[in-house]
Amino acid sequence: MAKIIAVCNQKGGVGKTTTCVSLAAYLAAGGRKTLLVDFDSQANATAGVGLDYQRLFHTVYHTLISSFPLQDVIKKTSIFGLDILPSSPHLSGAQVELNNFPDKETRLRNVLSQVKDQYDYILIDLPPSLGLLTINGLVAADYVLIPIQTEYYALEGLSQLINTIDLIRRNLEHELKILGAVLTLYDRRNRLDRLVVKHIRRHFPGYVFDAMIPRNVSLAEAPSFGKSILQYNPRSEGARAYHHLSQELMRQMEKEITI
Questions:
Q1: Distance of CA 207 to the CA centre of its chain
Q2: CA 137 to CA 141: how far, in whole Å?
């Protein structure tokens, strides 16, 4: 049964999609059958694994709104063991259309239940907002992974996300766990970045992964080639960081299961 992880931060530009795509790639490379769910209408995760949403007849939007068969929408990627449920700009319309459904908060959870037993991990790339799509993604997930940029205002606004998670726990009776935070866009040469890391580790209400994701040219370039960092430059500093993150995440998740 898949462990479903939502990668979420309502603040844009924190490396959320890069984290989702890279982590999914390394989980698959580590022998874990993985599904990447692009639940952002910008479809950056879809492009990041080499798919052109303009050439796709059906995307996650159609499974969400029209109950289109999920198996006909999921695509294999060029990485063995990694599949994707692609997105497109059509998904932006679902934000309004979902209000017409009595199960508007649980549509994605119901969709993913069809394939949950076929994967080891399902990663959901959520939009940088706290609307109905994000709520769907959080309700569908068992865990939340929060990328946090190592900048001065990193913790600003996180309280709103944590409040949303608490509301979901109480009002939708869904036991959603915060898996932890991953520090992104880190420049160890910058004194302020080092101070922010100490601040986050001290004040974030939960686990902070040891692996930190650096500012890295290869990480910035890889999406434009439709490749994950694993394929584009596996020897880069960014690739090594995501490999370490995947190893740390698997140890944490699979230790929990065996307890």
A1: 17
A2: 6
Neighbours of 151 (CB within 10 A): 18
How far are the Cα atoms of 106, 163, 202, 234 from residue 181, in angstroms, in the given order?
25, 16, 12, 23
Condensed to tens digits (0 to 9), the pLDDT of residues 193-229 reads 898 898 888 888 789 999 999 999 999 999 999 999 9
64 and 108 Cβ atoms separated by less than 8 Å:
yes
User: Could you give the CA distance from residue 145 to residue 2 in angstroms, rounded to a whole number?
Assistant: 16
Q: In Å, what is the CA distance from 227 to each residue of 91, 109, 118, 134?
A: 23, 28, 24, 25
Q: Which CATH architecture has domain 3-258?
A: 3-Layer(aba) Sandwich (3.40)
- Only one residue has tokens 């059509």, namely 90
In degrees and rounded to multiples of 5, residue 143 shows phi and psi of -140, 155
Give the domain ranges of the chain.
3-258
pLDDT score of 256: 55
- pLDDT tens per residue across span 225-239: 999 999 999 999 999
Buried b (16+ CB within 10 A) or exposed e, 158-189: beebeebbeebeeeeebebebbbbbbbbbeee
